[in-house]
Amino acid sequence: MSAVDGRGSLTRSIVLLTSAVAAVAVLLTGLFAWRTIRTNAEAQERDQLSRQAEVLARTPPLATWMLDRQQRIAGPEDIKLAIVRPSGEIDGPAAVAVDAASRESLLAGDSVSTTARLDGDDVLLEGAPTLVGGGLVLTQPMGAVDQATNRMRGSLVLPLILGLTGAALAGALLARRLARPLVTAARTAHRLSEGARGVTVPAEGPAEVAELAGALNTLDTALTHSENRQRDFLLSVSHEIRTPLTTARGYAEALADEVITGEEVPEAGRILRTEIERLEHFVGDLLALARLEADDFRLDIVEVDLDALVAETATAWSARCARHEVDFRVERPERPVLITTDGFRVRQLLDGLAENALRVTPTGRPVVLALRPDGTGALLEVRDGCPGLTDDDIEVAFVRGALTDRYRGVRPVGSGLGLAIAHRLAGRLGGTITARGGAPEGGAWFTVRLPPYPGAPYTPLTDS
After folding, report:
1. Is the distance from CB of 63 to CB of 136 less than 8 angstroms?
2. How far apart are CA 449 and CA 463, in angstroms?
3. Hey, how many other C-beta atoms are within 10 angstroms of the C-beta on 280?
4. Largest CA-CA distance found in the chain, in angstroms, rounded
5. 409 CB-contact burial (10 Å; exposed 0-12 / middle 13-18 / buried 19+)
6. Are 441 and 368 contacting, i.e. CB atoms less than 8 angstroms apart?
7. What are phi and psi of 204, to 5 degrees?
8. What are 408-440's pLDDT values in tens digits?
9. What is the pLDDT of residue 201?
10. Which site among 36, 312, 366, 415 is 20 to 30 Å from 79 CA-CA?
């Protein structure tokens, strides 16, 4: 469905919704008013009839005159009169409508307001006591109330129609105001899904719609940043793979063409093996990073003695560092340091940091592997003797390929994945890893903090 279709649907839905709500409100109001109008019409007719009765009750000559000329009084409005004498006798055309209770009330000096029957019809009956005792009664057919009710109800229809029309118009305006930024956001989302970048949505409309626009703008920025990183990473990967492939292909073609023969063949084989090992190592790093970023990455959690693990790691790396004439040192408490973790992954983490340190450390300079208990957890360090990290380096130390791209051709670099793998491993183990310069040996200083078990909080005793 297109954005325009979506806008029409949304506008139509909002208009229908607001119209339906308005219609229900109008109907409820109309129903209430419809029922109330009848009561109000009757009250108005009674009030008028009551005032007439009071006027006649206070002017006996006028009442007597009107009684004598009832036919003239009972003209179009059909109002009939009855007089209750002080003796209790009732005279007049409306005498039949005056019951005993009304007569007693008037004789007692009280007003009367009730409904009665006269000539087979319901009538309003209003009575007022006279100054000389007794009372005066006026009756009016209920038809007068019906006429007033119909008149008032007729005047109610137009306001209800206007209210419903106004609600529909307001709904249309509201729909347009809501739909316009939403359609813009939808179109932007479609453009983002199609690969467009650098598109923004104006933050307009209600707060929720403006928040949606802000979220899309943030998504656009995040996608741009992520895709740029992926592009740079792919370029880096391509470069890393192309170099050993080019070398291997050249030697393979030379061997196939018998350009290299005799005593040169073992050296060519050694070079081919080195380049293939580089490729294997790089592909292994890619797979390791992919596994670390997968949701189903597995940890084998057991109780591990980190002191024994560091001693084992030191044995392997001291021999390797010796081959490169690098001074390898180990600092450990030489007593059990027990935590619950995955020992294989901790060793993988230490190997990655040690390999990174060995690569950049010049001949004769030190590489240090250190362990010490720290609060309820443990602290592991790998330090090297040169060239160290700048503040800018520290900010991107664990971003894949960032330092490799920065120092390619300046100093020895690896695949660009080692520190990213270390960072992910530390996080998977529930710990943290930090990088800084200014190690006591003069170079980079990587610190890994591991909790007593994955997910456990702990407060370290040291700030290093």
Report:
1. yes
2. 11
3. 11
4. 156
5. exposed
6. yes
7. -130, 170
8. 777 777 667 788 888 988 998 999 999 999 899
9. 77
10. 36
Cβ atoms within 10 Å of 257's Cβ, excluding its own: 8
Residue range 271-282, pLDDT digits in tens? 788 778 767 766
Task: State which amino acid sits at residue 125.
Answer: L
Give residue 126's pLDDT.
92
3-state secondary structure at position 124: strand
User: CA 271, CA 10: separation in Å to the nearest integer?
Assistant: 67
Provide the residue type at 159 as one letter: P
Task: Compute how many other C-beta atoms are within 10 angstroms of the C-beta atom of residue 133.
Answer: 13
- State the DSSP string of 49-78: HHHHHHHHHH-HHHHHHHHHTHHHHTSTT-
What is the C-alpha to C-alpha distance for residues 183 and 189, in angstroms, rounded to an integer? 10
Q: Using DSSP, state whether 445 is helix, strand or coil.
A: strand
Whether residue 447 is predicted with pLDDT greater than 90 in this model: the reply is yes
Identify the bridge partners of residue 209 per DSSP, sorted by sequence position. none
Distance between CA atoms of residues 174 and 10, nearest Å = 11
Total residues found in the chain within this entry? 464
- List pLDDT tens digits, range 97-128: 889 999 999 898 899 999 998 888 888 999 99
Q: Which residues are CB-neighbours of 91 under 8 A, at least 6 positions away?
A: 67, 82, 83, 85
Bridge partners, residue 380, by sequence = 371, 448
Any idea which of 204-208, 216-220, 348-352 has the lowest mean pLDDT? 204-208
